[in-house]
Design brief:
NTP_transferase_dom, about 300 residues, UTP:glucose-1-phosphate uridylyltransferase activity, Nucleotide-diphossugar_trans, five-stranded mixed barrel
Length: about 300
């Protein structure tokens, strides 16, 4: 029971990062030295994915180019003897992995983006990864953690985390019946409720393992919050027919759809980078010492 197909909805406009995303995909924003979409792809492959389905839109050609073979670049690196850099380029997409690109003609929401993947997914269970939710799974990537739950229970699994009350209105929120530690069966799911109306503080984050039944449900899902077809609304119908589990993953999530979350991810990933960690840590200490120094003392007065 391995999930072979992973869907990446990458058609969003990335308006929170304008003007950087005016002509570039927000998923290509780098965290240290890798774009967000590459972290997401590596996570999917680590969980056993072999077919990667990208739901794209305007200005997303850079994603396609990133995962395409760059003959000129590889030849140049080889001729210059830059073996390590050549290995880095080869690691972007390992052998045996297939990429499929489907254009989402209209930006009608996450649910519609997932529905666009139906021709490529067919009648298989599949995963969905939102690249701007960067998750450091510590010992095991988030999707690989969810894969273990899926293998044990054989049903849909949604990643969740506890969120502060003041942030609840930015999430889909679930009410669960506990099944085990960090695991519960979803009884109710609400898209972006007011804090006082939320059924819990368990927010849904950008990782899903879904059965193909979701496609039929998305077909008849009306537009919901924001005038878009919400995946949350289709899942709400799904729990009336099938068991859907909420899993509290182990690890740290960075909301790279926000500028602050993106900056945090860059700092913390740089502090773990094998080539940069020591020098970057020293730099941060130097910056911190300057911030702690009174202005008069810093100017030598």
């Amino acid at each position: 029971m391995r999930i072979r197909k992973a869907v990446f909805p990458v058609a969003g406009l990335g308006t929170r990062f304008l003007p950087a995303t005016k002509a570039s995909a927000k998923e290509m924003l780098p965290v240290v030295d890798k774009p967000l979409i590459q972290y997401a792809v590596q996570e999917a492959i680590s969980a056993g994915a072999e077919e990667l389905v990208f739901i794209t839109g305007r200005s997303k050609n850079s994603i396609m180019d990133h995962f395409d073979k760059a003959y000129e670049l590889e030849t140049e690196l080889e001729n210059r003897g830059k073996t390590k850099l050549l290995e880095v380029v080869h690691e972007i997409l390992p052998p045996g992995i297939t990429c499929i690109f489907i254009r989402q003609a209209e930006a009608l929401g996450l649910g519609h983006a997932v529905l666009c993947a139906w021709p490529a997914v067919g009648d298989e269970d599949f995963s969905v990864i939102l690249a701007d939710d960067l998750i450091d799974g510590r010992l095991r990537p988030c999707l690989a953690q969810m894969q273990r739950v899926y293998q044990e229970y054989g049903t849909s699994v949604i990643a969740t985390q506890r969120v502060p009350k003041e942030e609840i209105s930015a999430y889909g929120v679930v009410d669960v019946q506990p099944v085990g530690p960090g695991l519960g069966e979803i009884r109710r799911i609400v898209e972006k409720p007011k804090p006082e109306d939320a059924p819990s503080n368990l927010g849904v984050v950008g990782r899903y393992i879904l059965t193909p039944r979701i496609f039929k449900l998305l077909e008849r899902t009306p537009r919901g919050a924001g005038g878009e077809i919400q995946l949350t609304d289709a899942i709400s119908m799904m729990i009336q027919e099938q068991t859907v589990l909420a899993y509290e993953f182990e690890g740290t999530r960075y909301d790279c759809g926000s500028k602050l979350g993106y900056l945090k991810a860059n700092v913390e990933y740089a502090l773990k980078h094998p080539e940069l960690a020591d020098d970057f840590r020293s730099y941060l200490k130097d910056v911190a010492s300057k911030l702690d120094t009174p202005p008069a003392q810093a100017s030598g007065q």
